Amino acid sequence: MNEFDPVELKRIRWRSRRGLLELDLVLTKFLAQHFDSLTPAELDAYRRLLDLPDTDFLDVVNGKAEIDDPELAGIVEILRGL
Amino acid sequence: MSVPVRHFDAVIVGAGGAGMRAALQLSEAGLKTAVLSKVFPTRSHTVAAQGGVSASLGNSEPDHWHWHMYDTVKGSDWLGDQDAIEFMCREAPKVVVELEHFGMPFDRNADGTIYQRPFGGHMSNFGEKPVRRACAAADRTGHAMLHALYQRNVRANTHFFVEWMALDLIRDAEGRVQGVVAMEMETSDIVVFQAKATLFATGGAGRIYASSTNAFINTGDGLGMAARAGIPLEDMEFWQFHPTGVAGAGVLITEGVRGEGGILRNAQGERFMERYAPNAKDLASRDVVSRAMVTEINEGRGCGPNKDHVLLDITHLDPEVIKSKLPGIREISIKFAGVDPIQAPIPVVPTCHYQMGGIPTNYKGEVVVPKDGDHKAVVPGFYAAGEVACASVHGANRLGTNSLLDLLVFGKSSANSMIEFIKSEPAELPELAMADVERSIARVKRLDEQKNGTNVHEARSAMQRVMQNHCGVFRFKDMLAEGVDKILEVEKMVKRCEIADKSKVFNTARVEALELENLIEVAKATMISANARTESRGAHVRDDAPDTPETPNGRDDKNWLKHTLWHRDGNRLEYKPVNLTPLTVETIALKTRSY
């Protein structure tokens, strides 16, 4: 599938709705400010982050946990800065 | 009109703790069970529950379900039904041990038993002293519970329909429930899920308020669907609030901030708590602080362009103290309030957290509505459990850790009732009643065809502002009356909502518009029920309810020891008695609630 398949983009947007308010708030900002300008690699990295359980994802966003994967570092950096 | 129909023994809407506990019971009984969820099951809002689940296991010190029952009745300010509360507290040890067997990684004592910690309001020996009753999995109890239940459900062959939104309940001419109309988000296809028994486990509707700790998915879909199908909503005036959430975001600022010397200030920079609580000041109890904050805002001394919040000031504290004693607070404030609390005060406002009311049920999870003078008449085929339901175990105020317990106990009991009901039904499903299906399809069609309508975001914000300002943590007679008019105006906006994006694939604009149609039902129910209840009880606190010997703390048992039922049709209110008769023990007699 093409990384910029519009269906997949919309699916990723919906999957940014989470079980934790803190993530909803951060991801809403991310979608508004960064989502449309992501590179295919960044988009793929974001999609992989969305597969994390909410509690782990929030720990990563808050800097309480690190992810040992250089491919995800760029997106994590953006999310932490929001 | 041709709509695809799928057939199941049971259909469950919502895949949080209650929905998945029920699904497991049904699937393991060999019944064909569908679970519909807007999001992946383990991302349901149950994941946000940290504190634990209460059960009188007595692993660390003596405990008894009867003491737990007493605490829950007292916590409910006597509005809880004592049969349901007895049932829940007696079942608690069983459902917690079952969950342990499902693979829940509870914290443990050295001897291998489940570790238990104390939690607010839970006491031993009928209110004597705090008791260790909360079972937890670190600070991730809800998360661990969802994972354990999801894994078991996969093994039991539960049919999950993920990223599906239920739109409406289907009832036949006699009122029997036949299933739901639902929409697949990926395609916007509308499909009927017909079943012998239908369970709503859709959670709460905290997003009716401008400031809420609830995730965005908590839009009260089950409540909206029930209301449109003619089911009344019970005790919707009762919502639990926390005094200090970040204004505009809802993320909580722990009370520890005031413990470390944080000061609340109004627009003039005044430390206003000195006027309301000269001794305790900013450390006064939650309700006193909330009341003072709301009074300041109502009297025009709120901060910001809309004068809708106050400030929590810790700029006078040593930055090292902030970093060491209040870890995370600086980050929360920077991230969600946009201010560094070392340099500027944090905007805060009382924040909605939990909905005590909901779809009226008995302790078996069966939905009950008044019929021919019987206020306990069962709606055949319809069940509800968890935050969407009102059993009523939380009454006017919920105790911490009783919400996860509620999910487990009533998820299971509703499923057991469903199993019994399904077995008693003929093997063949009845002919599908099309009237509700057509109404539901027409509702979506209206939205797609609306021209020159209201913007969804604007209508939702208007609703949230009205609820926050007129029906928040502390309530005033005139504001409530005005609030009723305003929320009915907002309803007119919602009825004319328009979406610009009419596409079919993952159209979040359409989903959000449909969610708003559910939220507005909850908002109306809340405002109208709160306006009518002229006493203070539990979380419903009114400025005009006098504290007298007959009505201590404004609680008026003579006139208001009763459940509210709001009917969508004509915004009619009726009332039904509180069940003060437990199943096996003596009633827990009315008393003034004090700790």
From TrEMBL, chain A:
Q: Which Pfam families match?
A: Sdh5
Subcellular locations according to the entry: Cytoplasm
Q: Which residues form a coiled coil?
A: none
Keyword Secreted: yes or no?
no
Note the superkingdom of the native organism: Bacteria
Q: Which GO terms describe its biological process?
A: succinate metabolic process
**Gene Ontology CC:** cytoplasm
**Chief location of this protein within or outside the cell:** cytoplasm
Q: Which keywords annotate this record?
A: Chaperone, Cytoplasm
Q: Which InterPro entries match?
A: SDH, SDH_sf, SdhE_FAD_assembly_factor
Stated family: Belongs to the SdhE FAD assembly factor family.
Kindly provide the name given to this protein in its UniProt entry: FAD assembly factor SdhE
TrEMBL record, chain B:
Q: Where is this region: Disordered?
A: 534-559
Q: What is its EC number?
A: 1.3.5.1
* Membrane-crossing segments per the record: none
Q: Where is the FAD-dependent oxidoreductase 2 FAD-binding domain?
A: 9-404
Q: Where in the cell is it found?
A: Cell inner membrane
Q: Which GO cellular component terms, listed alphabetically, does the Swiss-Prot or TrEMBL entry include?
A: plasma membrane
Protein keywords: Cell inner membrane, Cell membrane, Electron transport, FAD, Flavoprotein, Membrane, Oxidoreductase, Transport, Tricarboxylic acid cycle
Explain how, and how many, cofactor molecules are bound: Flavinylated by SdhE, about 5% flavinylation occurs in the absence of SdhE.
The UniProt family comment states: Belongs to the FAD-dependent oxidoreductase 2 family. FRD/SDH subfamily.
The entry's protein name is Succinate dehydrogenase flavoprotein subunit
